[in-house]
Design goal:
single chain; 16-stranded mixed beta sheet
């Protein structure tokens, strides 16, 4: 029997945004927001982005209860394929003006990809892609934009790194204007998660409402901020900036390619990876903003470059609290390639600190090497030291704890005779109080201009310098760093994933001291409660229960096979196999039983099947019979490409009851219909009817409403001038 299905290809639908599918369709996000503000849509609202939109003015969503707006939540998501919300706007593309409980989610279904792009292509003096602010009127301006989530989006602006006069933001939380200083009152409990941001002056900027209306409990997590080179996609000034804020969690972000050499920039500026409280730094002078209890943990900050005589800083922590301890925690961060051709008092710094008291800098790994004034940069400057950790002015910064940090500084300069590398610089007669410094590794290589530490009373060099650790240990009263070391940390350096991970012979192993509340490392592996490693990566203090001799991968179509071999096993219960489509968000996809205790090599294998097109990372979680576990990461990234041809697979299971799965492959973006017929040729179900991106696809069909029997399912797909039809048989047995 011949089945014929006629597909009618329509022109592009101008209605690109659908609210509560069936309740209203609009050409732009602004039109949809205007309808919500007018009270046309109420309650829990879903906005499906079914086509690309071009916004000509800012899409503003007001607070519920402001005017006619009456909603409990709003979810914005792409449907059918990757979508773009774009505008050339002197302002923001999207503004949440006091709006609460809004989710902008770039995932399609639960696939952990970024399928929504939000782009402001304009280059006005102050512009943004996404802007969260308090409301516009007296009735709403104290409430702020709260409990909002921005996740899995690609967010860009039209301002390149070379532009210093036009200030642009991928995401900004502020007041009534778009800037780093406009105070936004009570923009609380917002989360910025798993986004990619580039081509802007700032990645994320949060400015709270000053001393009486600080922002509270915001979260910036697992984002990639910056480009892959010092190019037009780099971040111009600061990756993440947080001011007038309490309890901000900044964790597991990758911040990279901030600023650039002089050939990429038109004016000098301090370039900062993460700025808490401030985005400016110079020796002996520092500014702070009010804020407490920030957590900056597990971030990778790299390639921060200033080629026009200002500072370059990996992390700045500079907050004040007017009495109580600031309680900031800077832990488990990896910082490398921070370079600046600075004029005193500016300087390149791995971690810079100024503020009130009671902060913690611990378990960080810093690697600062390279030429500070390479060919083509400014020359003839008399002071450009590279500093691993620099602490601010005397009196305004006390009771700091600096422990278990690995600091490798070995910078050179073509036109310099003063020391070029300091592992740590502190104010003279620093007030350690309840804090202290210990169990750090200060290493300045073989550079004859390297110094372990320095004390200063002013803002110019030279300071009191300490060439050796022994000299530095007696620089303070009471003495500090009694258990610190000065040795090559022997970083592994094979890939960016393990850039500063210690080798087996590293002196960082067993050299740390336990710190209450810091029990995990940058990979979320448990630290030794007795003798932890120095630096961001833990290295087991006891014999590993499993010694892995190899871990490799093979890709076949949309299937990934992992093969690994153990050279010995002790009390090995087995392995969980975990997969991540984004850094630090892992899901378990399978498990393999172990072999208990054995001294003979054992080979293992696991196949992860039917993956969608995309890029993935894998790791093994080895678990012993006591519940202890250890991670082994696959060093290479897995790429599932686009299939070479159309294909419809046999459903499985078959026979089935009541659900079955159908896989199909699309070499191009295509209009797809999958239709189910009974034995007489009558259409009984429409399984898929949508526009789908090129790639591998899976659909689950539930036949609970059908009777037992034989059915036929057919695909009709067309895209890029090609078409495909295929029919297969399935059996439903109840």
């Amino acid at each position: 029997m011949l089945f014929v299905l006629i597909l009618i290809a329509g022109s592009l639908n101008a209605q690109n945004v659908t609210v509560n599918p069936g309740a209203g369709s609009y050409p732009t996000m602004k039109d949809a927001f205007d309808a919500i503000n007018a009270g046309t849509h109420t309650g829990a609202i879903t906005i499906d982005v079914v086509g690309n939109t071009v916004e000509t003015v800012t899409a503003v969503l007001n607070a519920s209860g402001s005017g006619s707006a009456n909603y409990t939540s709003v979810v914005i998501k792409p449907v059918g394929a990757a979508r773009t919300i774009q505008g050339n706007i002197a302002g923001a593309v999207i503004r949440l003006a006091g709006a609460d409980n809004v989710t902008i989610d770039g995932r399609i279904g639960l696939a952990n990809f970024r399928n929504l792009a939000i782009q402001n292509t304009g280059n006005s003096a102050s512009s943004a892609a996404i802007w969260l602010s308090h409301g516009a009127g007296a009735a709403t301006d104290s409430a702020g934009a709260q409990n909002n989530l921005i996740r899995n989006c690609t967010i860009t602006t039209g301002v390149s790194v070379g532009s210093s006069s036009n200030v642009s933001f991928c995401v900004v939380l502020s007041g009534t204007t778009i800037s780093t200083s406009s105070q936004g009152r009570n923009n609380n409990n917002n989360t910025i998660l798993n986004n990619i941001m580039f081509r802007a002056r700032y990645g994320v900027s949060i400015c709270g409402g000053g001393g009486t209306s600080l922002n509270q409990n915001n979260r910036i997590d697992s984002n990639i901020i910056g480009s892959s080179a010092y190019d037009g996609g780099a971040i111009g000034k600061t990756g993440i900036l947080v001011q007038f804020q309490n309890n901000c969690n900044i964790e597991y972000n990758t911040v990279k390619y901030i600023g650039g050499p002089s050939t990429n920039t038109t004016a000098g500026a301090d370039r900062v990876g993460i700025g808490v409280g401030s985005e400016t730094w110079s020796i002996g002078t520092s500014s702070t903003t009010a804020g407490t209890n920030h957590k900056v943990n597990g971030n990778i900050i790299r390639n921060i470059r200033e080629g026009r005589t200002f500072s370059a800083v990996g992390i700045i922590c500079a907050t004040s609290a007017g009495g109580p301890p600031t309680g900031n925690v800077i832990t488990n961060n990896v910082i490398y390639d921070v370079l600046a051709n600075s004029t005193a008092p500016d300087v390149p710094v791995g971690i810079a600190h100024a503020g009130n008291r009671g902060d913690l800098i611990a378990y960080n790994s810093i690697y600062m090497v390279g030429d500070l004034d390479p060919a083509g940069e400014f020359i003839g400057i008399t002071s450009r030291p590279a500093i691993g950790i620099e602490v601010g002015v005397t009196g305004g910064d006390t009771a700091l704890t600096i422990k278990n940090n690995s600091i490798y500084v070995d910078c050179t300069a073509d036109t310099m005779t003063l020391p070029t590398s300091y592992a740590i610089v502190m104010p003279n007669a620093y007030g350690w109080g309840s804090g202290g410094s210990n169990n750090n590794d200060y290493y300045v290589g073989s550079n004859p201009l390297g110094r372990v530490g320095a004390l200063r009373t002013g803002t110019t060099y030279p300071f009191a310098q300490f060439a050796t650790l022994a000299n530095w240990q007696t620089a303070f009263t009471p003495p500090q760093d009694a258990n610190s070391i000065s040795a090559d940390p022997l970083y592994s350096l094979p890939t960016t994933t393990y850039l500063l991970m210690p080798q087996a012979a590293s002196p960082l192993k067993l050299a740390g001291t336990p710190i209450a509340g810091v029990t995990m490392d940058i990979l979320n592996e448990v630290r030794s409660p007795f003798t932890p490693a120095i630096g961001a990566y833990e290295y087991d203090s006891i014999a590993l229960p499993v010694e892995l001799s190899s871990l490799t991968s093979q890709v076949s179509g949309r299937d990934v096979t992992l093969n690994w071999t153990t050279s010995s096993e002790l009390n090995n219960s087995g392995f969980d196999i975990e997969r991540s489509a984004l850094s630090n968000e892992w899901i378990k996809v399978g498990s393999v039983a172990g072999n208990g205790t054995t001294t003979s090599p054992v080979n293992y294998s696991f196949t992860d099947r039917n993956l969608a097109t995309g890029r993935y990372s894998y790791r093994l979680k080895q678990i012993d019979f006591n519940g202890n576990y250890e991670y082994f990461n696959l060093v290479n990234e897995i790429s599932i490409g686009v299939p070479a041809s159309f294909r419809l697979s046999q459903n499985y299971p078959n026979p089935f009851n009541p659900s079955t799965t159908i896989n199909y492959d699309l070499p191009y973006d295509s209009r797809v219909n999958i239709t189910l017929f009974d034995i007489s040729g009558r259409q009984v179900a429409n399984v898929v009817s949508d526009y789908k991106p090129a790639g591998y696809h899976t659909v689950t069909f539930n036949a609970s409403a059908l009777s037992s029997g034989t059915y036929f399912y057919r695909i009709d797909a067309s895209g890029s001038g090609s078409s495909f039809t295929d029919t297969k048989k399935m059996m439903l047995v109840k």
